[in-house]
Amino acid sequence: MQSTILFFMHNLHFWYRPEPLKDSIGRSANWIEKILEQVFREYLKYLVQRSTAPVTILYMPGGVAEASEETFISHSTCGPGDSACEIKIKVLTPIFYSRFVYYAHDSEAIFCEVAESCTLWTDKPEQLIRVFLKKGSPPVHASNLLDYMHFQLIKNLRRRPDKIERQLASTNGHSSSVKGIDIRDFRMSSMDAFVLEQGDKELKNAYLRSVVRLFVADRIAMSSVGLLGMMELIGRVGVSWVLALLITETILGFS
Predict the structure, then answer these.
(1) Using N-to-C axis directions, what is the helix angle for 201-220 and 31-49, rounded to 10°?
(2) In what order do the strands lie in the sheet with 86-91?
(3) Is it the case that residue 18 has pLDDT exceeding 90?
(4) Which of 42, 27, 62, 36 is nearest to 212 (CA)?
(5) pLDDT, position 212
(6) What CA–CA distance (Å, rounded) separates 109 from 91?
(7) Where are the alpha helices (DSSP H) in 18-61?
(8) Which of 74, 127, 145, 152 allows an S-S link to 51, with CB 3.0 to 4.6 Å?
């Protein structure tokens, strides 16, 4: 209640989600972020293994207790003393996984999350070009109509996420409410195409379900998956009540 009064009556900004720093402990991942962590891990492994440049990446997940660190090595191994190709990547908060799927371009996602929103840390950001290259739009090769419709929905709902502000307290100046408009076409991301081509049907279905819920919640439920679930529950209760009322009236009409 106090935060609501401050926000609406005194125009005081409310910093509701400070993200952790490199050496602090972030929050635990929710069920969607746990699924997306599995997908991101497999996708990162795929990118490293297909890299033509020698690279070794130590991946440190964030917010998923059961997920361990893992090292990915390209087919072209690093030479003796070539420390430049050894890269550490640490996810500082599990929100990184849900933000990553909003980007259509891997390189933009990584560098924005490292430099702007600070949900990801790496010791050699300049070397990430070895893995995260800007590629053209991948074609859609869905095995069935339902998958095609899901990925088209994801493509149409995709939009670049807002930058996460790092301030933890209000400042004297008010942040600008003017936002730039991204005029680029949002499309299937490379990770979308990777998931689509995988033989793991369970992982693909989990990815589709998670990303669609994220994007729909972003449009109609203030980016809250929990609120979207509540809206679904209310809708189901309402439909059930209407059906029960119609059935009751029909029975009474025949009696």
Answers:
(1) 120
(2) 70-73, 56-60, 86-91, 120-122
(3) no
(4) 36
(5) 96
(6) 13
(7) 31-49
(8) 74
What is the Cα–Cα distance from 46 to 74, expressed in whole angstroms?
9
Which residue, among 91, 228, 218, 232, has the nearest Cα to 162 in the 3D structure?
A: 218
Q: CA-to-CA distance for 126 and 36, rounded, in angstroms?
A: 25
Q: What tokens appear for 219 in the block?
A: 């449009």
Q: Is residue 96 a contact partner of residue 119, using CB atoms and an 8 Å limit?
A: yes
- Asked if 122 contacts 114 with a C-beta cutoff of 8 angstroms, the reply is yes
Residue 60 phi, psi dihedral angles, 5° rounding:
-115, 105
Alpha-carbon span 120 to 19, nearest angstrom = 10
- The tokens for 125 are 């950001």
| C-alpha–C-alpha distance, residues 100 and 48, integer Å | 17
Give percent of the chain with pLDDT exceeding 90. 59
Which pLDDT tens digit goes with each residue over 32-55? 999 999 999 999 999 999 998 899
Helix (H, G, I), strand (E, B) or coil at 105: coil
* pTM of the predicted protein model: 0.82
Residue that is written with structure tokens 């998931």 in the block: 195
pLDDT tens digits for range 87-122: 999 999 999 999 999 999 999 999 999 999 999 999
Tokens of 38: 């599995």
Q: Rounded to an integer, what distance in angstroms lies between the CA atom of residue 22 and that of residue 41? A: 20
43 burial type by CB count under 10 A (0-12 exposed, 13-18 middle, 19+ buried): buried
